[in-house]
Specification:
With 346 residues, this protein is of the alpha/beta class. It contains 10 helices and 18 strands. The strands form 4 sheets. Strands 3, 5, 6, 9, 10, 17 and 18 form a 7-stranded mixed beta sheet that branches. Strands 13-12-11-14-15-16 form a 6-stranded parallel beta sheet, sandwiched between helices. Strand 11, helix 4 and strand 12 form a beta-alpha-beta unit. Helix 3 crosses helix 4.
Length: 346
């Protein structure tokens, strides 16, 4: 059996669509027919060689998606043939199988425990979560990364109380999910900061009470005017070290907390003023929103089903798999929030 997959053959070069032979399933793996895959900045960084030396070339890519189980391998009990599933890099329960080796003729092509840029994919059991009823496969693709990372950074990591102030730095897919989570949590004010006016418009639709265009305003001044004395929480989702520092600067002394979500290019460093910590500020990292998929993914699915989050606000454009390189380029240029690869498009 074969799959058409977008493969990174060499960093700095476009992905190549290749017809690969699918390997036999190992215990703890399932073969999934991928329906939709999201594209995020992590893949863009990897394609461009900005995540350090890549020791696994050539390899398949993609870490969030949705699909239908084609075959459940030996020992798999979490899902069965025909189940609709969420595909996520965030580990849940089940077997943890590191990866697979596809083939292009006699040549090996590596794949991790999850890849989603292909029509079929071998997935480790612990990267699969059954999709609750009432949610379509299309929006479910974003339940693999953007939604849990953005919302989890607020609900699981920051844990604000109603009425506390929160700002999100970077209004991409993950940042906009943080805005929505802050609104649902009852934060006030909810501030979105970005250099892209269109993304700030979406932030308002998702619950931001204030927006700051970082390219046209003095961000520190505007934040002080909105929230005198500093913010209770700042969520950094831009992946830029200077913005990470700004997020820490913006929170209040004696308990203000900055949560760093964004991925910076490999080798970049963040400079911090130790005085910020003497003032009693805190900085927290988060691993994908600190989610337990088995516990949290159904919760996010309910948010979609109940109409409290409209994923169409995040999916500004769908692409065919053959357009994968255009999708990545559009994401980098800020033309789309979260590109969606629709495996059903010709």
């Amino acid at each position: 059996m074969k799959t058409v997959s977008a493969v990174l053959v060499e960093t700095g070069r476009p992905l190549e669509l290749l017809d690969l032979d699918i390997p036999d399933l190992k215990p703890g793996q399932a073969l999934v027919q991928v329906a939709f895959s999201g594209v995020c900045h992590t893949q863009a960084l990897e394609c461009r060689g900005h995540r350090g030396v890549d020791r696994f070339l050539p390899h398949c890519l993609g870490h969030e998606g949705s699909g239908i189980v084609h075959t459940a391998g030996p020992g798999v009990s979490k899902v069965k043939e025909g189940d609709r599933v969420i595909l996520s890099w965030i580990k849940g329960s089940g077997a943890d199988v590191p990866g697979s080796l596809y083939r292009l003729g006699s040549n090996p092509v590596n794949a991790g425990a999850i890849t989603t840029f292909g029509t079929y994919s071998v997935i480790s059991e612990n990267r699969l979560t059954p999709l609750p009823e009432g949610v379509d496969l299309r929006p479910a693709a974003l339940l693999g990364c953007a939604i849990p990372t953005g919302m989890g950074a607020v609900w699981n990591t920051a844990r604000p109380r109603p009425g506390q102030s929160l700002a999100v730095f970077g209004a991409g897919g993950i940042g906009l999910c943080s805005v929505a989570a802050a609104k649902i949590a009852g934060c006030s004010p909810v501030i979105a900061v970005d250099v892209n006016a269109a993304k700030l418009e979406w932030a308002v639709k998702l619950g931001a009470t204030h927006v700051i265009h970082a390219g046209q305003s003095d961000v520190r001044h505007d934040l002080s005017a909105i929230s005198p004395g500093g913010l209770d929480f700042a969520i950094e989702a831009s992946g830029r070290p200077e913005v990470m520092g700004l997020a820490l600067d913006a929170v209040r002394p004696r308990g203000g907390t900055a949560v760093i979500v964004g991925n910076a290019p490999f080798g970049e460093k963040m400079e911090l003023d130790p005085l910020q910590f003497n003032l009693g500020k805190r900085i927290l990292g988060t691993w994908g929103g600190d989610n337990d998929p088995d516990r949290d993914f159904p919760r996010y699915a309910r948010v979609i089903r109940d109409g409290r989050l409209n994923p169409d606000s995040l999916i500004s454009k769908s692409y065919a798999l053959r357009q994968i390189n255009q999708a990545i380029a559009d994401l980098e240029a800020g033309l789309v929030i979260r590109p969606l690869i629709d495996m059903g498009l010709p």
